[in-house]
Amino acid sequence: MGVEPLFFWIFAIGAIVTSLSVVVVRNPLYCALALVVDFFFFAGLYVLLSAHFLAVVQVLVYGGAIMVLFLFIIMLLNLRGDELGQMRFQLHTALAITAGVVLFFIAGGAILSATAPMDGEPPVEGTLVVQDDGSEVRVQEVRTSIPGLYLALDEQTLEEKYLEQIASWERGTSRPSDGKYPRFNPERTFEVPPSMQFDPEAASVVPGRSGLYGTFQPISALLVNRFVVPFELTALLLLAAIIGAVIIAKRRVT
Amino acid sequence: MSWEPTLAHYLILSAAVFTIGMVGVLVRRNAIILFMSIELMLNSVNLSFIAFARYRVDLDGHIFAFFIMAVAAAEAAVALAIVLHVFRHKRGIEVDEMQELKH
Amino acid sequence: MEALYAEQFYFLGLIVLAPLLGAIINGLFGSKLPKRVVDWVACGAMAMSFAFALISVQALINNMTVSPDGERSWGMLTYTAYQWIFSGSLEAEIAFLLDPLSAVMVLVVTGVGLLIHIYSAGYMAEDESKWRYFAYLNLFAFAMLMLVLGKNMLVTFIGWEGVGVCSYLLIGFWFGDDEKAAAGQKAFLVNRVGDFCFILGMFLVFYTAGTWDYVALAEMSTTAATAATLLPIALPAGLLIFLGCTGKSAQIPLYVWLPDAMAGPTPVSALIHAATMVTAGVFLICRMNWLFTLDHRLMATIAIVGALTAFFAATIALVQTDIKRVLAYSTVSQLGFMFMAVGMGAFVAAIFHLMTHAFFKALLFLGAGSVIHGMHHEQDMRKMGGLRKLMPYTWATFLVATIAIAGVPFFSGFFSKDLILWGAISNAHVLTVDGAMGMITMEHFTSALVPAAAGGEALDIGRWAIVNWVVFLLGIMTAFLTAFYMFRCYFMTFHGECRADEETKAHIHESPPSMLVPLVVLAFLSFVGGYVGIPHFITTHMPEGPQFWSLLLENWLAEVFLVSDAYRVVGRFGASPYGLETLVAVVSIAIAGAGIGLAYLMYVKSPELPARVKERAGKLYDLLWNKYFVDEGYDTAFVRSTLKLGEVSYWFDRYIIAGLLVGGTAFMTKNFGQVLRHLQGGNVQRYATYILIGTVLILFAILGGATGS
Amino acid sequence: MVEFSSIFSALAAQPLLAQIGMVSEAEGSMPWLTLTTFAPLVGILLLLFIPKEQINVLRNVALIASLGTFALSVGIMVNFNPAVAAAAGDAFTFQMVEHIDWIPEVGISYAMGVDGISLWLVMLTTFLMPIAIWSTYGAIKENVKEYMVFLLLLEVGLVGAMLAIDLFLFFIFWEVVLVPMYFIIVIWGGAERLKAGLTFFIYTMTGSLLMLTAMVYVYFQVGADTGVYSFLYADMLGAELTYEQQFWLFAAFALSFAIKVPLFPFHTWLPLAHVQAPTAGSVLLAAVMLKLGTYGMVRLAFPLFPDAFVVYAPFIAVLAVIGIVYGAVLALIQTDVKKLVAYSSVSHLGFCVLGLVAMTPQGLAGGIYVMLAHGIATGGLFLCVGMLYERRHSKRIADFGGVAKVMPVFAVMFAVIMLGSAGLPGLNGFVGEFLSLMGAAKSHFLSFGEYNFFLADAESAFALGTTTTVPTEAGTSSGPELTAFIMAAIGALGVILGAAYLIWMFRRVMFGEVRYEEVRMMPRLTAREIGVLVPIVVMTIFMGVYPKFFMSRMDPSIHQFLSYMDVKVTEAVEAAAADEDRRNVYGQVVVEPPNEEWVPQGSMVDLARERRQQR
User: Fold this and answer.
1) What is the pTM of this model?
2) Which of A31, C529, D41, D102 has the fewest Cβ atoms surrounding its Cβ within 10 A?
3) pLDDT reading at C139 higher than 90
């Protein structure tokens, strides 16, 4: 566990620095490159959050596709950051920056107050879990004012909790989604489709780490089962975007 | 704030990146950088989704983030096409010159 | 006419209506009627009014009742035309009152008025807008009769202002010449200042007495209980009304309009500025004698102002060269005499002088008019002279009038002036009101004070004796000056050789008979007029019958001034009451003789003497010639300052109120609009920033709400 | 409470005209008031059908319409019975009352009534309108149709405002008056007519908005107290308002009326509007519209808020007195004739307000009479100035001189009107001004109470008779009479200044040599112009010589109003004496019943019938 915090701070500071440079640097080319690096830091963070599939997708889609597009446009329009001299002070830039900072502090305050442990209640001591390598890890299951939200969870308990969740789906007593999906009738049982039948042991995805959460398999299952409508719509959206881009960017032969 | 990263850390980070992106949108006068800032904002949102997913032991965040990425890609494509089109007509893509709609 | 008509004696209405009808006919159709008809309509109206006046006075005479102890009283005849303004406790009717006082005034006004109408028919013969002149003259007569016959102060006030307007119209009759129009305007405005004071006096009277009706007011001020209410306001109201009278009768503060009023045609000056209008002030004070006699300080001020005006105007008249101005200042001076008499409580003497003055001053003006008429509107005496042979009738009548005004015995002026001077020195005001303010009631001072005074031993009224002496001395000096300047004027116009230039001298002609007849009649009246008030030291030796006739005026007006007489002690100095009167008569005869002699010496014996006196007098002469710079003083003091105030307030009005306040708010709203305009700059990012700021503020509000409450 | 949604349904459900039949409460008698108010609308209707080019037909139709309205208003006058029994306790008893519920849900009703005070103002309007229209024959050449429509619309507004006894209806007519006058000034006005029109409109509008808010406040107050929500005047009077409420409500009402009157500080719009307005416009603006302000004061501001009125009265009087002298002095130095007449209106209406505020029978009668006399006099003056302007196309006094020689008949008429306006006894101006001043002189209402700083214990030489001494802590002050008398004295100054500027203007314009060739060429008065001026001159003389005809019909209403105010004011003074911080309020209404045989017993119709029977 001890290593993880370090990585988090590296990636966090990295992300902030690169995003700042995207905004501050004059030359659009350097901004684009800074953005690419920023996406990598984000990918790192996803991994820390055990969103392995998304980390990969992040790198692929953002790093690969979108940034290439930007670089292509920058190259095509050979912008040389000619707006160098124009960054003179304008009233509304000052206003914008201050407003942004104020918004950040408000958001930060809100986050801290929301995720702070319920006042008056001591953090509930988590169950003691023995890591497979023999070290016990006290799981802090600190409940916040938001029901069902755990402040800090290590990998191990994450997997166990996720497996419990899948098990509950099978038993039809799916966790009360507190109205998350109102359109779904909670009483209706939801039998897990065969494709989602996992065999925990067989699903060794990451060499040396067995875990199901965040990997490709459950996400793809969910995508094609519960979220199949949005999935198809996204496809449609992408199609429209492609055609649109082509038409707009085509040189008018008049 | 303790050293181990908790949900709060991630959310504050995403808020920070989001703010930087927003300021970028408001301040920078070059269209391309403006779109980059928008990408930044979208990414920060993804991060918060995933952070919540992680601490709610739930994969819905991931799926949502996935869809955001798809949309971001589509949006970037169309936006850059527009920028290309605009550039071809006006030789410059400073945002504050684009005031044809003013009156 | 038995007393049956006492209540609704409609002839009074007819007296007033006749000139009004004349004015309306001439006014509306005059321009189309032939000249002769216009004359006849005007003079006819006046004649009718005179006839009705005679009938009414005859009715009044028949109305005589003799009280047990031989006191004759003629009571009064009233006529109420209609209810004019009734509002709450104010009940003002258009009502007329004929009592011995107004009888005398009516006869003077209509009589002299008729003569002047006949005279002006000739005088204005060749003036093309004669119909307008006669319309104004009749309107003036109507207003004057309203003033004289009015039964309450409101009707008098209607007449008062009506007379003011008519004098404005008549003085400015030849309005083509701007200078004459200005004179008319000056007359009207100065009169208006007088009327302002008159109105305030009326308010005070109404405020305390609750009515303006003379009969009721007289009744109120004579009965003990109610007199106490009038006592406190007697001084303020009296002073205000007196100020009004000075405006109308051209006394010290407000006399400036009379000399300029000579701009009007001469018959106008004769009628208005000699006989009728200027006497309005004296008449009013006599009419309200019971109010004025309540406060001795008031009577003293009137007397002193009168005396001062008399002397002051006489000095100015010394140096005037325009014949009409001399007569104008002489009128102011003679009116000063009348006010002096009224101030001293000698009301009968004042009315007597008023009557005689009307006769000889009208004659003087008409005489001057016929001279001017003859010499084709030449008014400067230095260009006249030696008209004795050329205009015999005018000369004769003018001489009679000059003798009368100078106070030569056997002529009317002597009798009335003598009575005034004797009253000045002998009357003393008994009612010392100082101690009596509200403390004592009317019976107290009628029962205790007056008998003590009548009993002969002088009351402690010492300190007021000075007033008598001052007034008497001023009177004597004025008498001397009057004699001097009148004969100066006479000699300069009629004696010596004619100084007019050849062209006018060629056709100096005597005036037509229509102008001479009034002159002769007036000359006769100036002579006879005096014999209704023969001095007492003569009449005491007369038997009962002739004594009544020789003291006719005194007996006739005794009842009207009954209240005021109760306040006077007659014959305070000297054993027998009339010894003093003989002394005064002798003194005034001597004074008159001296004046005439001096004038004869300077203007007939050695014509160069006045020139020598003039350079030696030097500065004094200039002072008199410029009328003590009073006109210029008034002009800068009042006219200029009001106009300046006007400019300042106009500037204030335009820049402060309109500019600053109203304009200011408009300016602010416009600029506030400007500020908002920048919000719509058209820059997309700026909009986004504003949206962001908006959200931040909203969040603050919400969170603020959350954290705050 | 009240659901407003039903307003529109109510409007649709009861079309006004359909109910005209059963309008007046009096059994089956002619609804004179409604007919007179809306007769000009019939005229407008006719005008609309006539094509624009036929100017003469347009003019004549408008003239006939206004004459018809005048005939109808004579119907009101004839049926008006001054000696109607005054219902005890309420401020006014209205006659020929016409009342139907217009919007019952909200309590707005179409209620018209006439009483002594409003009778003559209505007659003034309908009398002047034909004259004003007839005077435009020479002046207005282009778009005559709109001009006539606006004039007739103006008449509807004016007559309606005077007759309405429902506050909401009064407010509607009050606003209706503004619109046509604005257009008249803006379209047919002089050089900078836009600025003048705008100032006039916005100035009056802000005033009236204040009034509206105050009116609605009282409406809810009444509703809350009595449960009955109604704008009717009688109900509004029942409102019990505390002194503080009354203080502000009176301020709102008084301000809007002060702007209209116009009182001293709010008068700057008047010279602008008058100078720029065309002749007929300024005649009506000066003659009748200004009277809305003073009429409003008597009708609405004073009776509704007596407590506040006791405190405000001396200050309003001071403004009025300032107005008199200020207006006169300003008029003195004007070079433009029309502006001179405009400032003279400010001065004359100062007399009116001084009379009204004095709360004495003479004061009120004088104030109302000034309204009538000023209407006729200033209307006449504006007509004369208009005629001079038509001939010489200049309003500067210096451009004239010696006009009397060129136009003698005009000179005579102009002289009579001018003298009437200057307040010569025997003509109309004098009666009003004299009574107002007299009323003010004897008023017990103009004491400043505790702010009696400059006259606290004036042991003055003018110890005014047995004045009711006022127990102030600084010994017995000489009582309010001295302040009242001083105000009357200063007001009377206006008499001199008034004569001064009018006579001086008359001399510079009419007398003197004829300096300019254009003046010599000025044509004499046409028959039409003489026809326009003759009624004014006749009225000037008739109102001066025989005011009984008018005043006898006013007096009963004035007496009733004063007795009502007497009751209210004594309560107010006692209430003020009760609470400690306002101990020193002093005000006493003088009530004197009118003389019996002065007031005609019964309307002209009845009197005529009796006379016929006697013969």
Assistant:
1) 0.77
2) D41
3) yes
